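hiii so my PI (J.) wants the whole complex modelled not just the main chain, which honestly fair. so below is everything: two entries, each one labled with what it is. i double checked the lines twice but i was tired so who knows lol
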Amino acid sequence: MKEITALLYHDFTALDALGPLEVLGRLPGYEIRYASLSGGPVCNEKGLTVETEALGSLGRSDILLVPGGMGSRKLALDGDFLAALRRAALESAVVMMVCTGSALAAAAGLLDGLRATGNKRAFDWTMSMGEKVLWQRDARWTRDGKFYTAAGVSAGIDMALGFVADHFGRERALSIAEGMEYCWNEKPEAGWCFKEHGKIGKMK
Amino acid sequence: MKEITALLYHDFTALDALGPLEVLGRLPGYEIRYASLSGGPVCNEKGLTVETEALGSLGRSDILLVPGGMGSRKLALDGDFLAALRRAALESAVVMMVCTGSALAAAAGLLDGLRATGNKRAFDWTMSMGEKVLWQRDARWTRDGKFYTAAGVSAGIDMALGFVADHFGRERALSIAEGMEYCWNEKPEAGWCFKEHGKIGKMK
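here's the output for the full assembly
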């Protein structure tokens, strides 16, 4: 069994984690673990309390997933959290970050010299967390080596489907998207689309 | 403060609940409560354990949200659950169902004579739960009176944005979608779209 670890924290954004997990949880042979730095209950931005295991008590992950959320502002300055994130990420075969999750990875020094993106509404702050990161302001999601990053919230679903396409083929990604009745934004460079409303193109 | 109640149960689909809640949680003046029939921890299909309050201990809701999931198969035959769902739904100003959540509402007799939809991959079973429901096999989401229903998983996000448009205007819905970097499928009758892949049109 391969292990997916979602690294949660107080005031994370639920959909940042549970969107990608809905995709990844449909892969046969993978199981999901919900972790936090210390373990125990973690409450998200909207009062959702989730049980977690302590990150240090889990073995290495095949996929490590780091969501964004308001709580990331504080954690980006927390040396203990960043050290644990760095260790877990270096051990993991694949690392995925959504929204301001990529600010945490940048603060942990994981993204230096790599292409990455993040939430468009918090992009300047995110960039300030890693001056050596090759930030892609217009990207919907990115892949550089084992590191995947996504822009805001629902872009994480597109990124996770991109991972499936990379590792299991495009047909598998399309099949999972169909099972979720999700309209996949397949192109990572498509920063933002509002085709229905005539607002095609990049988000500012 | 207006109250949104998510009615969870064992083996619910996380994204069915947390997709719409990501939309609704961005409305000012609303707060979210996580409930189950008996209260206490509830574990979803993918090992996510969430704390809940007992539905009966909460007052009436402004919005009641019922996700789908494998657990709905058993609950559709559970008289106690259906009676509690019926009572909570009748008291609530608006009721939203995602995926096989609409099978539960149908089994509770809430949708007789109304237009409704559900997950395309479980549609025949869903229809069998309510012979007097005006099932819309091709719809992505529906509204009939105070009852909103959505097809599978991510269609719930489109439905919740549709609710926002109905009650707060289309600009508010677009603004929330933009904040989530979500490409809204605005048209309820659009059953399924895979525009990127040349598969535009209804899902079979």
